[in-house]
Amino acid sequence: MNSLIRDSLDHCVKCTICETYCPVSQVTPLFPGPKYIGPQAERYRGAGPPADSSVDYCSGCGICTQVCPHDVKIAEINSRARAKLWEKRGVPLRNQMIARPTVIGRLGTPVAPLANWALHNRAVRGLVQSVVGIHRDAPMPSFAGRTFQSRARRHRGPAGAPAVVYFHGCGTNYYEPLVGEMVVAVLEHNGFRVIVPPQDCCGLPLQSNGNFPAARTYVRRLVDRLVPHARAGLPIVSNSTSCGLMLKREAHEILGIEDDDLKLVSESMYDLCEFLLHLHDRGELRTDFMSLPMTVPYHAPCQQRGHGIGKPALDLLALVPDLHMIELDVDCCGIAGTYGLKKEKYEISMAVGERLFKEVTATGSDLAACDSETCRWQITHGTGVKSVHPIELLYRAYGLDRRTRAGSVSPELQTARVSG
Amino acid sequence: MSYDTVVVGAGLAGLTAALRLSERGQRVLVVARGVGATHLAPATVDVLGYLGDTQVASPAASVPVLISSSPNHPYAHVPAEQLETSLEWFCTKTAALGYAGNLDENLLLPTALGVPKPSALAPRSMSGGDLRAGGRFVFVGLKGFKDFHPTLIADNLNHARLPNPIEARALELVPPSSRRGDLSGRVIAGGFDTEDLIDWLAGALEDRVDPDERIGVPAVLGLRSGDATWQELEKRLQRKVFEVATLPPSVPGIRLSDVLSSALRTAGARIVLGVRAVGARAKGGRIEAVEVVNATGTVSYPVSSVVLASGGFASGGLELDSFGATRETVFGLPLIGLPNTDRVRFAPHYFDAQPLATAGVATDDQLRPVDASGSPVYENLHAAGAILGGATPWKEKSGTGTSVATGYAAAEAILTPAPTPVSEAVR
Predict the structure, then answer these.
(1) Which of B192, B208, B239 is the last residue of a domain?
(2) Which whole number is the average pLDDT over A264-276?
(3) How many domains does chain A have?
(4) For a designed S-S bond to B403, which of A106, A269, A280, B385 qualifies (C-beta 3.0 to 4.6 A apart)?
(5) Among residues 232-271 of chain A, which lie with CB inside 8 Å of chain B?
């Protein structure tokens, strides 16, 4: 696999299509573009690290690989080059920190009120920017105080029903446990018993920050947790599109992990909306939706597109009476996981997101939908518009907010007139 | 999710077929390895530019001649009236780009190398470069922009054989300092979309162009604002201005792809890039599902019809392996135009008649790929664009015309199937 990825550069005909799509090189000369840094420069890099740090300005959105008509693994080549760069130079402390969401989550959760105060305090953030290098204005979520895992442990689901395994990711666990409860509620509403195995980070942030050895350790640990279920033939669903993609493809293609267990987990992995749409295709999805008379813009994040599954969220939400979704046509919001948090990249990330922000704002809606958590935080940061996972709309349309423990959905959703 | 039609390929042929089908109410899925050749081509619609070595003045008059001499040509399988209908339809769908021209006479537009090229249709921001009437031209370059060389264009045009004499010269402008050294067309176009680059360009040209000169600028006047910027520039300068396609990437091509893709999304179609159609599940001579490889593995999309618009060799729709075997990469369809030898040799000169030049699939009159006996391989599989054999698009200058005409005709064949199955041999 390692050599297959690298050798794909020989398929590059220098058509420059990737360059026309790269959201980063369009807004900054610091990144010379995916073709230049990727298939072109890789030829000369050989086994060594890149000559300069321009590859570190690649946000890793992966759009170059998606649009390449010749199957050149441009983003993957660049991701590996970045890892070589940091292998040589040593990954900076800041990048080591922000790439470990479980560590941050475990530290922040018990002291959530204090941590949240600090995360949103101008003076503290100014200090953090100058000492650590995290931009003072970068969007930060709030610690929920109680993890999704701890809530899930107390939850008693229906017994005996067909089972589905839920990989919730760190965002849901530490910051958005309500989203996790909605996922569980919607799956249970559709007759599933939801298994929530203990789980850790998927290693994606470490991978995009160039620490491959640590990323591999996380992937393996997670795969060990999930593989017994995959062996039992159970589907695994995730509402975090980027973490799901990590297990589906990137751990193999970028980290180069050759492992039967990983392969089994990959094949059992479904994006949440993909899974629900499959149910619908088989006539097994409940469609007792209430009317949701709203117009909501939807952004399919770059990592969602990487799944190659179309836009199942839109297909599902089309089933909800009176709900009008507007499909936005922007490739990337700019945040790219931890990219937009960094002091030197924040402005780039906001410039990349500008077009999306404008499109969201132009719809006049006070609510947007998007599958990926960091992208939602970025959209809200760039527009002031509350952003939700599509599952929140489904949850609401099923009327589950009035029936289950997860309770309140976003205020913007509650104001939607209810009928049916 | 089940779809009425899966279209394989997101180039001009695929997008055309998909849009025609979805506007007529079909649920359409477009799957492609990446974006199509639209991003490399100048966005003109070239129906027929050359018959042999003779330049074609009127495609309407010459296409029938081409068909009679090349009975396997894709145009031979497009119903006569549909060539014109498809172009009219295309102009309506791309109204935002304002295509000018018609089937009766070719425009003669300068390429990035200063070659006069015959095209039936061109966006109105480009059609003003028509060289047929002759006259004075100035070609404007931007310092640091490596994909457009005004001196090359002017020199070549001054030496070109043209119906009327022209006088061309080059002019190089230095872009504002905010624009960096290594410029791409896409980045400059973005500048016209978001900044006041038009003020700079209009100001820089005002005193440096004679009143009777037509002004050729690189086709970078904006990605979304291209047509508006062009109109504004003509108004401000009170001169005829036209865009000339640059070396790739092609900003007009991206505009075209964007306009068609956005119309597709509005019509409810789904476009999935970065995936690979690898085959079909068939039963009783019909494709029941198209198999597509995505991030996890192979998934099946149940379908009623399929349009194969995967392109030719350059786009990976056809493949020649190192043993000399040629194959159609998605469904393994039978091919025509292959040399009668196992070891394919290439003619020594690039522009010679190459042994694989006309390779591709043969079809019936519903654009369904056929086998050697002339029977459709699958009842519900249609093909469009560069995958079709029997043509030499780069010599004929017929590539984009073929894509629009066959993309449209394939859609029509799906929407209104012929009353009885066609079983006679290929025409």
Answers:
(1) B239
(2) 97
(3) 2
(4) B385
(5) 245, 248-249, 266-267, 269
Domain holding A385: CATH number?
A: 3.40.50
Cα three-residue angle B175-B178-B180, rounded to 5 degrees: 75
Q: Is residue B103 part of a domain?
A: no
Q: Do A246 and B293 touch, CB atoms closer than 8 A?
A: no
Chain B residues near any Cβ of chain A (below 8 Å):
1-2, 29, 32-37, 39-40, 180, 182, 184, 186-187, 190, 248-249, 254, 261-262, 265, 270, 272-276, 292-297, 299, 314-316
Domain that holds residue B166: 130-239
Report which secondary-structure segment, H or E, holds B213. Answer: strand B213-218
CA distance B29 to A5: 28
Domain boundary among A45, A74, A89: A89
- Show the domain range for A52: 2-89
Looking at residue B42, the DSSP 8-state letter turns out to be -
Query: Is residue B426 a part of any domain in this protein?
Result: no
Q: Are residues B34 and A69, on separate chains, in Cβ contact within 8 Å?
A: yes
Amino acid at A74: I
Facing residue for A308 by CB, picked from B249, B261, B272: B272
- In a 13 Å sphere around the CA of B3, the CA atoms on its Cβ side amount to 27
Same domain membership, residue B219 and residue B167: yes
pLDDT score for A409: 54
CA pair distance A14, A9, nearest whole angstrom: 10
> Is residue B218 located within the same domain as residue B272?
no
The interface residues of chain A toward chain B in range 318-357, judged by CB-CB distance below 8 A, are 327, 329
Q: Which chain A residue's Cα is nearest to B251?
A: A20
B337 and B365 co-located in one domain:
yes
- pLDDT tens per residue across span A342-399: 999 999 999 999 999 999 999 999 999 999 999 999 999 999 999 999 999 999 999 9
B10 neighbors B35 (Cβ within 8 angstroms):
yes
In a domain, B400, yes or no: yes
Statement to judge: residues B265 and B411 lie in one domain: yes
Q: What is the rounded distance in angstroms from the CA atom of residue B400 to the CA atom of residue B413? A: 20
Among B7, B35, B194, B246, which would you mutate to test the A interface (most chain A Cβ atoms within 10 Å of its Cβ)? B35
- According to DSSP, residue A295 is labeled E
- Domain of residue B26, CATH code: 3.50.50.60
Within a 13 Å sphere around the CA of B27, how many CA atoms are in the beta-carbon half? 9
pLDDT in tens, B14-73: 999 999 999 999 999 999 999 999 999 999 999 999 999 999 999 999 999 999 999 999
Name the token pair of A51: 């000559």
Q: Which of B405, B421, B422, B426 is nearest to B82 (CA)?
A: B405
Please state the φ and ψ torsions of residue B377, each to the nearest 5 degrees.
-70, -45
Contacts of B153 (CB under 8 A, 6+ apart): B110, B112, B113, B114, B139, B168, B170, B216, B244
Check B296 against A266: CB less than 8 A apart.
Answer: yes
CA angle A408, A413, A418 (to 5 degrees): 100
- Dihedrals phi, psi of B22, to nearest 5 degrees: -75, -30
pLDDT of B350 reads 85
User: Token digits for B114?
Assistant: 């200063």
CA A233, CA B285: separation in Å to the nearest integer?
34
Please report which helix (H) or strand (E) contains residue B293, including its range.
Answer: strand B286-293
